């Protein structure tokens, strides 16, 4: 688990320290306060904390992380110095502190060609593969990103590595690619099924190197190999859960709603093990509400809370009041739910960005999101009272 983040002189940030919940973290802030930059910085640091393989030297690892930072943030000039605030002399330093108090840090200056990596010996808290889900959905883009006839350099000019890395995770084979039973971790069984129920089907990677939407649902079916066993029947173990296609032919992913595709991304990552609480690293999701029907947000929040209860650390960034409020309403302390809100604020007279963290939703009344919805409510009341004599 990642316990904290420390940032000095990086992109929009001068100095920032963040204490993270091991469960759910929600980053809030107006445009330009660095929400996406923060998520990408944590993602890059988590990758830097992965154990180096025997076939890569420390110098090669540092070069890889340097390239990854540049590919994540895509500055016009491909050099580390462009990721630093203008006019800053102090070196840039980014650090992740794990739950066991060990840390991994990277640092660089204006003229650095590669980052310096520092990692405590024996660190275990963030040596797990992180997952970053960007704002735009990716399922319909995977075919174009990975098509052999497309120029790789052009693809990388269009998409940063947040999108490209996710595309690589999505094409990993999963149990839903086979005509077999649902063999996922029992902890996640309800999550996987409910994601499919939300959109009325699943997205499968096809032989044509594209994702297609297949209508259907998971159902309990008799297993002939088990039903012959009286012992299995005695323990009600003669059925398996299978996906049952319904409603005709499949559709190209691009012909389905973008909000559904975002649900499909989460389903796919769970099915192929890219997200596996306790085994994989932090899940970072930038604006999960984007292009999502508000009616689906309650269920998405419920599913994210369920993942966190099973040990998945989550950090998401949002602009949406509805998503925020559902976290407040659905959080169940009896199930040890914990949601920490991090509000990024830009000073009025300078570019300095500060953070205020709280575990109390009621302390968010002064955020831009809350103020905007309060203004809308006041305007609605004012309009409804026009012409009414008291």
Task: Explain the overall architecture.
Pfam families: AAA_21, AAA_23. Residues 21-337 form the AAA+ ATPase domain. GO terms for molecular function: ATP binding; ATP hydrolysis activity. This is ATPase AAA. InterPro entries: AAA+_ATPase, ATPase_AAA_core, Bact_Antivir_Def_Nuclease, P-loop_NTPase, Rad50/SbcC_AAA. By secondary structure, the chain is an alpha/beta fold. The chain has a domain at 2-130 and 281-385: P-loop containing nucleotide triphosphate hydrolases (Rossmann fold, 3-Layer(aba) Sandwich). Helices cover 33% and strands 23% of the residues. It has twelve helices and 15 strands. It has helices spanning 35-48, 58-73, 142-146, 152-158, 161-170, 189-199, 224-227, 230-234, 258-271, 294-309, 321-330, 368-385; strands spanning 2-10, 13-19, 24-29, 92-98, 103-108, 116-119, 131-133, 201-205, 211-222, 239-245, 251-252, 283-286, 314-318, 339-346, 353-358. A six-stranded mixed sheet has the order 7-12-13-3-14-15, sandwiched between helices. Strands 2-1-4-5-6 form a five-stranded antiparallel sheet, covered by helices on one side. A hairpin with a 5-residue loop joins strand 8 (201-205) and strand 9 (211-222). It is globular and about 65 Å long. Mean pLDDT is 85; it is low at 232-236.
């Amino acid at each position: 688990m990642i316990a904290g983040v420390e940032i000095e002189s990086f992109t929009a940030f001068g100095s920032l320290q963040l204490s993270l919940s091991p469960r759910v973290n929600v980053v809030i802030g107006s445009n330009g306060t660095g929400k996406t930059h923060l998520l990408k910085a944590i993602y890059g640091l988590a990758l830097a904390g992965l154990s180096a393989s025997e076939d890569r030297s420390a110098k090669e690892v540092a070069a890889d992380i340097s390239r990854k930072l540049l590919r994540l943030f895509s500055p016009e000039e491909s050099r580390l110095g462009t990721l630093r605030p203008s006019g800053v002399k102090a070196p840039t330093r980014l650090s992740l502190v794990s739950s066991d108090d060990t840390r991994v840090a990277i640092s660089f200056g204006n003229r650095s060609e590669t980052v310096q990596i520092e990692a405590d010996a024996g660190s275990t808290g963030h040596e797990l593969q992180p997952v970053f889900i960007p704002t735009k959905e990716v399922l319909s883009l995977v075919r174009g990103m990975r098509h052999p006839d497309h120029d790789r350099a052009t693809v990388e000019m269009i998409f940063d590595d947040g999108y490209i890395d996710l595309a690589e995770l999505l094409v990993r084979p999963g149990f839903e690619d086979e005509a077999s039973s649902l063999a996922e971790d029992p902890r996640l069984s309800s999550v996987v099924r409910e994601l499919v129920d939300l959109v009325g089907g699943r997205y499968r990677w096809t032989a044509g190197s594209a994702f297609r939407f297949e209508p259907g649902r998971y159902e309990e079916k008799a297993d002939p190999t088990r039903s012959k066993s009286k012992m299995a029947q005695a323990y009600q173990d003669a059925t398996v859960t299978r996906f049952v296609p319904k409603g005709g032919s499949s559709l190209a992913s691009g012909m389905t709603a973008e909000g559904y595709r975002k649900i499909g991304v989460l389903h796919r990552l769970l099915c192929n093990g890219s997200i596996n609480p306790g085994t994989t690293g932090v899940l970072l999701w930038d604006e999960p509400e984007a292009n999502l029907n508000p009616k689906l947000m309650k269920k998405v929040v419920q599913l994210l809370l369920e993942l966190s209860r099973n040990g998945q650390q989550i950090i998401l960034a949002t602009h949406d009041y509805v998503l925020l409020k559902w976290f407040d309403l659905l959080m169940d302390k009896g199930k040890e739910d914990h949601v920490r809100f991090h509000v990024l604020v830009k000073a009025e007279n300078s570019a300095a960005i500060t953070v205020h963290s709280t575990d109390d939703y009621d302390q968010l009344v002064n955020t831009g999101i809350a103020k905007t919805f309060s203004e809308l409510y006041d305007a609605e009341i004012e309009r409804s009272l026009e012409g009414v004599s008291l």
